[in-house]
Structures are given as structure tokens and as C-alpha cells.
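Help wanted!
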Amino acid sequence: MGHFVEISVLDVLYSLGAVAIVAVVSVSYGLTLEKNLAFGAIRTFVQLIIVGYLLKWVFGLDKWYAVLAMILVMTLIAGYHGARRVPGSAGRNVLYATGAIMVSSAAVIFYTFTVVVRVDPWYKPHYLIPVSGMVINGAMNGVSVGMSMLKTAVDSGRERIEAALSLGATGRLAVSPLVKNSVRTALIPTVNGLMTAGIVQLPGMMSGQIIAGADPTQAVLYQIVIYYILAAANCLAVILGLRLYSGSFFNRAQQLINP
Amino acid sequence: MPDPIVELKSVRKTLKSKTDGSEVNTPVFNGLDLTISVGERIGIIGPSGSGKTTLLKLVNRLEDADEGTISVDGRDVFDWDARALRRKAALVLQKPYIFEGTVYDNVAFPYTAANEKTPPRKTVEELLSEAGLPDVDTARPAAALSVGQQQRVCLARSLATEPSVLMLDETTSSLDPNVAAGVLKKIYGRCRSDRLTLIHVTHEVPKLRDLDRIAVIAGGTITEEGTPERILEGPISAATKDFLAGFS
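Answered by r_m:
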């Protein structure tokens, strides 16, 4: 397999031509997205350049604690962003989202690197960091959608919940149908992703490996593993996150409250 | 004087809600007193927004009073396990909220909620019969029933908690008048035979005539109470006169 074609920062700047197309569309249609687009493009550039250098440094260190520290930071950021748009007590929501993302991602990553891809040493950053990133991102999206869905459902279904509480139900039982619906909704993108893998959606990891010169059959096998573990991480994170979050709607007297 | 089963003393309550991010306070009760005896059938009337539903929610602790005391069966509501209290003082809401599953699943819900063994089908059928729905197929999805039938399933579901106090919040308003009369007759029978206490919030004046007492809530307190004849034929307070004028 040949080596990949290296590109420079200047080449990246040329790719801004693609962003310019969006800017032209925005101006033509009066979408007023130009400012956000410019900010987003700059932010993407700066964030990824920083991450690139950070990864290079961690790869060079090749120490387990540096790898775990990086994954921990990724988890904390994911927890914050996952809960940021969910109404209610921000601190508590961040705690729930972070806990759910952390536990689900850790379980899935542990399983992946002990059963599926056995790397040596176990903390090999070239494997652990990118795969963790994808898993954490999937878990974050699931938790975020699930929590937002549940909040909306509880707000619009207060009387139904109180009907169940009036019959001696615990808050958890009273809210369980809403939790079930929210979990289902949060998992729809994951299930759709599995259905259309490689057909509608072009898997990023597979493409990246192929560009980097990997055997396409190996790249495909890796991508399949990624799809499977993302589904597990997403599912576990949503269930755990909503289990924690649903409890915050009730006090000790099993009264429905605004968290 | 019969034993009191529900007592509200100097109850104050302000409902808090959020509108466009800012908190809105709505005062509901400013020193409400009401005592209800074992086996009594009391009607609660009053204008919309006077706090009738809130009063019921205070009794079964879906809401807490800001000040004052509320006791059920001689115990302060704060001394009750909230879930046990809600089985003791069952509330049937105005709108029928049917849960997932069959008619049987719905009526058996209080057993599930209490982690008890689900009841035999016969018990469920008896409860449905008592709620005015004797011939329904308990294996049918409850959501497939008409609104009136769903309301009776909700009533049967509340009776399954074996309550000492039954609180109906406009519960019979969606029923056919004849069906509603039949259902209430059965409940009145239980009030006599089992000393069940009935607290009936209703706008329907004819349904008030068969009760033992009527209490009128307005302006945050009980403005008037007495026998149905006294309240309906000779109202004293302006709030009662206004309320009844709307039905004449």
C-alpha cells in the first residue's frame, strides 16, 4: 500500500473555497449564517490544529496516564456539551450526562480492547484515543437527545404522571413510559446508522484508514466494529443517563417537581 | 359528631409556575379550614381557578401546603408514607389518563405499583362493575375504549387501592347522565356500607343534591358550607350566588 499524500496548511486554506460556497448561498438566500459560518470555520481550524499537536505530544509520550488523562478531558467536555442544552439544573444535568457517558464509554472501550482489538500495550494511543473519541461522541449525542426528549415529555405529561402517582406509584414507575419513549427516540439515529452503513453514510474512520494507505478490507472490518460498539455505547449511555435524570423530577415524597 | 378523616387547618398555598423564564406566583388558599367526617359525602364547588383541584392534591400530597396542617385519618400528611397516603385517599382526575396495556393492566396498576401480586380477573371485573363498566372485555387495549369508558376504568383503578377517601375531580362530567347517576349510586352505597368518604368536586348542580354537605371555595377560603338544600336554595355568600347563577 502506498503512503498518503501529505497536505500543508496552505492546502487547507484552499479548502476554504468550499466554505465560501456556503457563504454565497447564505448571502443569496438571506440566511444570515455568514457570521456563524465564519466563526465555525475558524473554530474548527483552531480546535483541530490544537488537537493535532496535542495528539502528537501524547503519542510521543506513550504513557498510559497521558492517554487516560486525554480521554478523561474528552469525557468531561462531552458531558458538559451533552447536558448544556437540556433545561433544568445545569450542574446536576452535567453530572448525570458525564456519569452516563463515562460509565458507558469505559465499559464499551474496555470490551473492545480486551476482546475485539487486542493491542499491546493496552493504552496504545494510536488506537485508544481515536476509538474513545468516537465512542464518547456517540454516547454524548444519545444522552443529549434522550434528556431533552424526556424533559419535553415530562413537561407535557405532568397530569398523566400525577395520575400514576395518585395510585401509589413511585416517580420512577410513573415516568417509565416516557423514559422508554425517550430512549427509543434517542436510539433511532444509531439504528438508522446501522441500517444504512456504507450506503447512505460514508464512514469516516474507514475513509481515513484507506487514505492513510490501509488495506480496504481491514478498514471495513474496523468500521464494522466501530458501528457495533457505537451502538452499544449510545444505548448504555442513554439508558444510564435517563435513569439518573428521570429521578430528578421527583422529591422524596414522590411529588413531581421542576428540576 | 362522627370522627374526622380529613382535616385542613389554616392552610395557605401559593402555586408557583414559570412563564417565559420568570416565576409566577398564584395565591390559592389564604387560611382554609375544612373538616370532613368518616363516611361523609361532601361536594366542593367554586369558580374556576378557586383551588378545588389543588385542595384534592394537598390531601393526597401531590402538592404540599405552604402553611397550616392537613391530616388524614388522624395523622399529619407529613407523617404518612406518601404512597400509602395516596392509596388511602384516592384521587380520580377529570381527564382519564389511560396507561399502556389492557383494561386489566390498568385496573391492576395499583397492585403493580405496590409490588403486590396482581389480582384475579374476577376482582378486576368486580371493580369495573362497581365503576359502571360491567361488560367490558378486560383483555381489550384500554386505549381503544371510548372516553366515558376510559373514565370508568380510571375510577375502577382508584377503587382498586381500597381507599378510605375517594376524591372525584369532575370525574363524572364525561359520562352520560344516566351512567353517571348509576356510578354515583354505587359509590354512595359504598359510603354507607364501607364508611367510604367521598369528596366530589363538580360543576354539575344536580349531582350535588344527593350529597350530605356542600362547601364553597372562593377567594382562597371556604366561603360557605351547609346541606345541599341550604346552599342550593338559599345561598348566602356572593361567591355562591354567582356560582349558582351560572347554572340557572
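OP: Thanks! One thing I noticed: Chain B has ten helices and ten strands.
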